[in-house]
Amino acid sequence: MKRTLFSLNGKRPYSLMGLDKKAALAIQTHFRLSNYQMLVLTWIKGLWTGILFSLVLHYFISH
């Protein structure tokens, strides 16, 4: 069984927006997530990134 991650049927197969959409679709189908679960996953990732960024910024400002 041959599995392909991306379908390259377009004029610009390596555009940044196309790769982002294909990666999100691959994650969603691999883990069998609904659209709502993908939204929550994205929100948690953004929250975690913000917390880490604020901790690093706080470290450099206070020391």
Provide a short characterization of the protein structure.
It is built from 2 helices and no strands. The protein is mainly alpha-helical.
Describe the 3D structure.
The chain is 68% helix and 0% strand. It is mainly alpha-helical. It has a domain at 34-63. The protein has two helices and no strands. The model has no long low-confidence stretch (mean pLDDT 85).
Strand composition percent: under 5%
Overall shape: it is elongated
**How many whole angstroms does the radius of gyration measure?**
17 Å
The class by helix and strand makeup works out as mainly alpha
Tally of DSSP β-strands? 0
Q: If helices are DSSP runs of H or I spanning 4 or more residues, what is the number of helices?
A: 2
Describe the main β-sheet briefly: none
Order of SSEs: HH
Would you tell me the overall average pLDDT?
85
Spans with pLDDT under 50 lasting ≥5 residues? none
**Oligomeric state of the chains in view:** single chain
Instruction: Please give the alpha-carbon distance between the first and last residues.
Output: 56 Å
Percentage of helical residues?
55-70%
Key terms for this structure?
63 residues; mainly alpha
Q: What order do the helices and strands come in, and which of them pair?
A:
Blueprint: H1 16-30, H2 35-62
